[in-house]
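User: Here's a chain of 413 residues. Predict its fold as tokens.
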Amino acid sequence: MVAWMDRVNVSRVKHEKLTMMVWQMFKKKCKSITCIVMVATIVFVLHNLMDLTLNDKDSAAKFKGQSKRQADFLLGAKFNMNEQHEDHQNNHSTPHSTHAEEHPTNKTIVPENERLQQFEQEQKRRKDLIQTVCEERRAKHAHATELYDDTQRHIYVVDKYKLMFCYIPKVGCSNWKRILMILEDHSRTIDDIDSREAHARNKLKVLRYYPGKQLENRLKNYRKFMFVRHPLSRIVSAYKNKYADLSVFRVAPRELRQYALRIMKKYRKKPTKRELTTGENITWSEWLQYIADPTEQKKFDRHWKEMYKLCSPCAVDYDYIGKLENIKEEADFIMDKLDISHVVRYPDKANSHPTNTSMGGIEEKFKEATKYQLKRISEIYALDFRLFGYTNPFLNSHEDTGIKDTIRNYTEQ
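Assistant: Prediction complete.
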């Protein structure tokens, strides 16, 4: 049939008229709903087969005067079926990605070699940015290049593949732990490893396990990568997952429940005896008060502690810095570069359960914050914003330029 259509060489207008004529002709003969559905299906297939005969660019140019929808269909419809399926899965499996890089409605197809080149360029841009910010700090403070103690506990080492991964809680680290476990034991699969085992019984080696020279050798010669996310999104995610979700909170480690008890005691007005005993149901407003409290910052848990303190990007030269906002695509790229894709792949979004929030949702959440709280939170996470290239919406929208000056001074300390 396609060959026959090639010979006919129908134009777009004739194409539309022909399919409509077929539809009208058969519809009149139908006496049942089943018949009408069958005819509609045949017309749909015929319509799409005819599209295959039209040259994409030439056809779009000929019908430039038609509606934008028709032109977009000519250029992309028959290529975007898989993408639309992925979008459908994403919309039903998890909320929209946090950091909220906006995706255009009409996607363009990027050749594989161009896509890889774009990834390489983006990685270079991210590494250059980190180097620039670190050099600025290094010029003023010698400690800017120190390897934080937390980092030695957060970098996993897989000697078999000579690679290291610095995990940051609330940045998809559960799946990365599963992947590293599979690299250590090829008989395992992603589905075999539940969250509790991935976090508490993964048997992975951390950097601090190695004595001085061995540690230095691995830092120098192994390939290293990490993933980050928008700092404000991470704060929201920590609250939603650890405290707003009671099913998680009630089985959380004791130290996380202790934070809730302290928050309840310190910020809730007239708490009940039960609230002071359980720590359940701390509010978003109380969470903001806690995060912005200057006396609490040094005692932050790793789930909301500053990302740069967990992975020391000024001291460790990471080969790849991924972003949770684009986790699947960037994970695939990095795993290809690390030569581990033949062993394991990053799970599809349908099998992943991140606590993501769109950028619009984040700004909505922070509408409850006071001006002082926004200032404090911007100060605390200022280096995370700068090092990893994230925009702080409150610096761009706030009329009080004093906030900008305060944060600028803070990051130079």
